[in-house]
Amino acid sequence: MKKVILLLVDSLMPGTLEDAFRHRTVPALQFLTERGRYWPDCVTVFPTMTASVDSSLLTGVYPDRHRVPGLIWYDPDRKTIVNYMNGWKCVKKLGIVSCIRNVLYDLNETHLSKEVTTIFEELDVRGKTSAAVNAMVHRGGKKHPVRLSPLADFLTQYRLRGEISGPEVLTLGALTKTEMAEGIPKRLMGAGQFYGITDSFAVHVVQTLIRSGRQPDFILAYLPDNDHKVHKQNPDHAETALIGVDRKIQQILNMFGSWDEALDRCVFIVTGDHGQSRIGNGESFQIDLDELLGNFRILQLGETVGHHDLVVANNERMAYVYPLADEHLGEAVKQLATDSRLDLIAWKERKGVRVREGGSGREIYFERGGRITDLYGSSWTVEGEWNVLDLRQAGGRLEYGDYPDGLARLYGALFSQPVPMIVATARPRYELKTRYYPTHPNGGCHGSLHKYDSFVPLIIAGTDHPVKEPPRLIDLKSFVVELFEP
User: Fold this and answer.
1) C-alpha 282: how far from its chain's center?
2) Whole-model pTM?
3) How many CB atoms lie within 10 A of CB 305?
4) Tens digit of pLDDT for each residue in 438-477?
5) Are 197 and 224 within 8 A, CB to CB?
């Protein structure tokens, strides 16, 4: 039985990849594509942010079941904003101890629902071994001690020492004390190298595992460097960053006698977590939610919940808006919808979701169950103006345009928490602005439901096992598990 290596490349986009194919600048990815199968339109998760995406990839379900709403969200029980380490100004206002605890402990041990299982847990039951290399979501059956860097230890006043769950092999850069991390050069783990949350660190671990002769049955390796560069350079100039990723993948393939031998011994899966949209250059492309919702008292980072009306959790091109009293929901929706730069404003209504288009005010309502079946096999009741979500009916089934799998993904986000909440997304070229959160003028950004943020490439080589089509990231869990079935 072959080993499986899944490479999750942050912000891997089909347009950039296909440009690189035409220019023949990414030989490793081209080899895997030509020896295997390629889909340019694999649908990721909404919000298109790493925490919610990784949670869905590992559990095979949307946020309404795994309960991780996004990278930034509001916890009404603790009355605090949860931030998985996005934006240094945000981290400073919320407190570094709180943010590190969120990503190191709470995400996997508390926030991720115990009612769903991860790939690592499923493979463990089947007697298969796994490795999570720098993956944000890594819950498994083994406990691993946490070791922070000396600086992080000092900043957190030595309060974040304990254990986290994962598969047999777990690395989070220099933050976990594992056998793999012990042998990695210190030059790959310093502050300038994001304490090891880099492509170089991850590939070094994968190479070490292959070289050891004890390669786990399944390896998930997260490669983040591409995302950092696309945020700065914008998606139209992302090929150079992808060439760097390809060189790292070559280093993995070179661990075998030949690249063909690599496919004889392993199944390779390469995909992205989300795309990115190019953001315009200028203040008019920043939708200032503090200003737009200026009639409300908005909880700002660092404040304690008191006489506030709303909490805004900014996920770049998407935001959750939480009304702290029922009477604020309708007024907040009405105010958001006055800005035509906002694409969609959605909220829970009865058993389903109502969506209003920014500017025009057109609306659509949908709920689960009904006579309309989409191309993914889900059934729906849909009322109102289908153009709001660019829906159409062809051959007796519902198909999606600009918002792939839009009904299930919107439903998944809004029902990820049992409280009143509003989803607001920006149109292409725009991003959301709130105090302290990072912005990306003339760069790249993601988070929304739009296809620019939502389509990722999927490459599978080394197996002919059938893939559920059209492909979605949430279907990869069952695909991987099936590869190990007798």
Assistant:
1) 27
2) 0.95
3) 14
4) 999 999 999 999 999 999 999 999 999 999 999 999 999 9
5) yes
